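Troubleshooting log. The previous structure file for this entry was overwritten by mistake, so regenerating from the original sequence record. Sequence copied from the archived sheet and checked twice against the printout by T.R.
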Amino acid sequence: MPIPQSVVNSNQSATQFRVSQNVSRPTSLALGGVKIKQDLDGRYCLNDLHKAAGKEKRHAPGYWLAIQQTAELVAELETTGIPVVTIEGRNGGTFVMKELVYAYAMWVSAKFHLQVIRTFDAVVIGHIQLVEGKQARERARLEAPALTDAIKHGRLSAGKDVKHYHFSNEFDLINRIALGMPSKVYRAAHCISPTDSIRDHLTPCEIRCIEHLQRVNASLIDVGMDFESRKQKLSQIYIQRHSRALLSEIKRLEF
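Regenerated output below.
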């Protein structure tokens, strides 16, 4: 349904509803099985939202855009950008800022409004977890040299030789506690090639656990604690600090 001329002639400027030649871009956001397109500036397609809401004529975007409350909200959003644009062409439509998505959903029904809120929350949480996971992987990589240095200096200060397996043994100790198996077994179980980093295949909770245990293990080596004592201490820390979070994460991923 086209945007009524009355909307353009209201208190808003016509540029808010300008016709754009920009094409829409794919998005992972979906509601009720309908993929919600976005334009190049991140606005969401109202026409797709209308389909997701049930495509009833009374919920057509044009009707909602014509009401005074919508016009006032659009006017408020002008200070942060162009709230509404129309894109022509096969994949076009009316695209609006996220705030207007919430407002439109609330106008349609409480049920659809709640669905939109939960969907957007899930997208935001997923993005945060992705960012946090990348940051945690980087921290874990940064902690690894500290652990290798502790191993090297600990053995040298005790007058012992440093062999390559001394390093792999310590990292496998961390993997056995945090992942329940050594790295070689974990790679086989999860079809990870020898050239890929295991850290890139772990969940955020697993990464945080490994990062923490690596840091603690380096400190325990520095104070001269033997392998078996460190193994016991690290296992205790795992149970106290990480096991519950990892269990909750596994349950969430299963459902």
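Residues 1-16, 250-255 have pLDDT under 50 and may be disordered. Archived copy saved in two places this time.
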